[in-house]
Predict the structure.
Amino acid sequence: MREEDKNISWSLLAKDLSGELSEEEHMKLQEELTENPDIEKQVKKLWGDVHYAQTLKSIDTSKAWKTVDNQITTKNNKFKLRLYTSVAASIIVIVASYLFLNIVSEYKQTTITTSQAIEQITLPDGTSVDLNFGSSITYPKNFSKEKRLVKLSGEAFFDVKRDESKPFVIETEDLNIQVLGTSFNVKAYSGSTKSEVVVASGKVRVDAKNNTENYVLEAGDAASYSSSSNTLAVHKVSSLNYKAWKTKEIEFNNTHLNEVIKTIEQTYHITIVLDKEVLTKEKQLNATFSQHSLDHVLESVCQTFNFSYSKDKGTYYISNK
């Protein structure tokens, strides 16, 4: 689902630049700009350029050209002067319009939200994004000259197109993540106390918003942030299950049953309830699943531990046989 950012009334801005804005509309536009400081900064610059253009228009061109005209004797030259004046005025209008359209294009935002499906997205710079269930991403129609900024709530796998002159920045509720060109997974659901970044290739810098901690991660590294303790920690990735939601490739190496159940739930977006008589503490699983169906995975796990499973209204129940 895609939504366009409607925080700014672009029609009011256009009317203001042309001098057609009423006092009431002017107040409304000022309120909207105050709520969007990044756009306000660019608009003030545009207003300055347009003011300069309007100043040029207010110059007494007739008087200025009269002095020159006294030195010109041919009709041909007079025609050229009038033509140059007309062209100059047209250029002023074109430049002002170009500046305005650039601002609109840069700050026009697109938001994509997923609910019951994984969506593949290609960003304006060619970066590929796989957006997991229950996630949303916001990005501009065109990135700015300084950086490529996107905002994420939820989980996504990024394959960033390399551009050393323009860093790629992901902003979540608790973290800022900066890269040049790499592939990595970000999990940062709104309301969750834990956020995680796992790097598949390249290098990624992770900064905690609420403290001064930051780390540069390389392939095989992961950073976990806890909002409850306000700490950012780094560890090595023990498996590729962090992106199983995308690849459906699962590997269990002496993995405790509790972790097995959690991984299956996250991979297939389901809820599993264990019967209270099922003992998980000492049970471990060694198995590999490559793009298998959920039923195949559950049947294999249950067969290994002599369990049975059933489904009721979207929830799976596991019990002893």
